[in-house]
Amino acid sequence: LRTPLKQAATSQLVLTERQPDCQPLTTPPKPKDTPPADPWTPTSNLKMLISAASPEIRSREQRRQLSDSSSEVLQTKHCLQERLLGDEYEKSQPSRKEKSLGLLCHKFLARYPDYPSPSQKSYICLDEVTEELHVERRRIYDIVNVLESLHMVSRLARNRYVWHGRHNLPQTLQALRKVGEDNKYIQQIQMIKKREYEHEFDPDGGRNEEMASSFGSSEQSEMSFVELPGVEFRAASVNGRKYKSLRVMSQKFVMLFLVSTPQIVSLEVAAKILIGEDQLEDLDKSKFKTKIRRLYDIANVLSSLKLIKKVHVTEERGRKPAFKWTGPEVLPNTQDTKLEATSTTCAPPISESIPSKEQCSKALFPSKGKQNFTRHSSLIKLVKSIENDRRKIQSAPTSPVKISASTYLFLTFLLETYFSLVLSQMAAEEMQVKCEAVPKAEASQQAALSQPLGVCPASHSSVSPLILPHPQSAVSYAICLHPSQAHTVTTYSPGFMLQPLPCANVTGIRSNNSKGLNKISTEEGDTLRGADEPAKSLAAEERPETKSKTSSQRCLKRSQALPENNLIKRRKSDEESLDTSLTFFPSGYLIPLTHCTHGNKAECSSKEKAGVCSVQHAAYSSPIAGVIPMPASEVKTVNIPAFHITPLNIMLSPNSIAAAPVLSNSCLNSSSASSAPNPSSSALNFMLQHIGLIPAGVQVAANPVLQHVPVSSQPENINHSSGSTNVQEGKVSEKKFAPPAWWVDFLFSLQPSAPKEPQEPQAVTENFFRTPGGPNTEPSQPANSDGTQRPSQGTLYIPQRKLEVSED
DNA sequence: ACGTCCCGCCAGGGG
DNA sequence: CCCCTGGCGGGACGT
């Protein structure tokens, strides 16, 4: 097929000369050993001979010979080609890519229908496939193994498989997801990323392999293969628990996607997790390499299945290969969780069968499911985990704080939720969703936003029983750039980037720098550049008016001012395309709590939900205050930096935010609410207090405008927008992005294996809520006081990450 | 120089 | 014992 015959004749001669005894000439692999450039070396000949002697190959050839002559011809040609000299040879030589596993997989898949009629099963004969596809048998195994891991095929006997197609995919994915959750992969990923991040600043430092402990507890899932009940698996009792590595790896790899929120997994992380799980062995270099290689194999076939897609996460450390899940969305597996809306909207009775469920959700949400659900079940686990932590803590009040990864995550989540509320509110206020051009993504976004409260991520309602998002609010949550997460930050889906803004900016100036700072680009997006422009020009025309509480409104205006073309461009941008335009709001004015309803209808309805809620309550009512003792006097008022919220997939409509309602204090059970802080601070306080991070009486101020505003030391760098500024910042700021220092410190301090042990409570606390502004949070600064790019003491710079999507 | 990953050796073990 | 399976990693190709 793909083998040019041109040089066949020529090569034939040569070949004959050289290898008179190259008999059947049907040995494709062997000739390979001959270095194309120097085919005639004794060495090469020797190699060929040796290869030819291989029993395996010989036997296979024999089979081939009698099987069919046509293929033999091809083989011959192939063989001949191998012997061509230099350029000629090269030209005829199918590019390496043409021999890729991915391509081969495509060919393989092309042979069978995605959804074979259940009546007539199609069988797969490896020999046939091998022959027809013209490949080494070995390669087929690679493919079949991962297909098997997805239950798309199952082995019948030697050399024989049954083709199931994608019929089982939903169940399989569902199952995998569950297992993934059970395995606490999310936590592990966090762990790894965090460590990774730490190493950036402390390369040779702490060999803290102690995360084993955090990993440990949950590896009941050794090397087991996830079976599927319904699917008759291997009639033959081929239960060699052993040789399943690739299959198991494949499954785990998939799990990783299914459980992580931005469904992007880097090979590196995946490899580490897969290794770490087997044995907490020393991260052997070669072992790691091998793992990566295997992952590539798996990834290739998964790619062929269109389940994942290769992307790149670029950060300052370089480009890291990663993959993004593009397969069907898998809802958290909640067998008994009823999504209110679902039950009412779905005409057909909700059976417990996954497929129907999926269909149901599909009907509800035209596109794939929403990621908003992905939190749900995992949250349950987190909560439980937190409970344990709490217990431990209580039993050892004086011992150093040690919080599990899950608790850490939970806290993160809470904060995340907090921000999401802000966003929700904005959305509620007639916010206009801005969807990406890519249909799938678009649909998904739409669905998420039009989603009725009932379907609102359970996580939200359960987490903040007292603070419920407005019914019509969009259910999108913010993606906070935690250092560890930042690695793969991708602001995917209803994603937002949060970043601290120097107060100066908050006053209503478009921070040019912020644009560069936090930039995520896509490769396919030439659109990105385009989108950038409007933003810039917009920024240029933006003029600070007055300085007062109207800042928020100014922000609104700004958003309103977004040029139409910008909108359009964004629409066109691909799903990964991230909006880099600048639209930010002082968090204080945008907190979304319209009417907080205590235990309203959104309350736990299903059993599971009820369970969740109760657990949560427990968690709340027993704050882990002890964890971080903090004299109220120490933290009477803390500044929470304003955030720069960059809408990625969502756009505000011109008139939307102006009317952003304010949270009524009654919603807060906090006594301190009387001080009538702005909504955001109220919410934040509520949250922090409830998780015991701050005493009930303590108040955290979230509105920078109302607080003293430490002005950036380099106001000139940020408070205006000129062409030149754009240029310079382009370089500098594009390199670094600074998360709120307090946020970073805060999160890090909560982490189980935080390198720097929280010295004393107070100190830690102070770190959490360092005042905003200041040099540390000034992103556009080329370097810190120490002259390096490294953050100093309490500040952590997160290297800017780019997400590039490269299709091939 | 590094990311990808093809290629095929060879050990295990099913039949 | 044959030979199917599939772990494994050297090293070539692509960028």
TrEMBL record:
SUPFAM superfamilies: Winged helix' DNA-binding domain. Residues 96-165, 241-327 form the E2F/DP family winged-helix DNA-binding domain. Residues 712-728, 777-795 have a biased composition (Polar residues). One of its GO terms (cellular component) is RNA polymerase II transcription regulator complex. Coiled coil: none annotated. Residues 526-548 have a biased composition (Basic and acidic residues). It is found in: Nucleus. GO terms for biological process: negative regulation of DNA-templated transcription; positive regulation of macromolecule metabolic process; positive regulation of nucleobase-containing compound metabolic process; sprouting angiogenesis. Keywords: Activator, Cell cycle, DNA-binding, Nucleus, Repressor, Transcription, Transcription regulation. It holds the Pfam family WHD_E2F_TDP. GO terms for molecular function: DNA-binding transcription factor activity, RNA polymerase II-specific; RNA polymerase II cis-regulatory region sequence-specific DNA binding. Residues 1-44, 514-573, 712-731, 754-808 are annotated as: Disordered. It comes from the Eukaryota. Belongs to the E2F/DP family. PANTHER family: TRANSCRIPTION FACTOR E2F (PTHR12081), TRANSCRIPTION FACTOR E2F8 (PTHR12081:SF40). This is Transcription factor E2F8. The gene is E2f8.
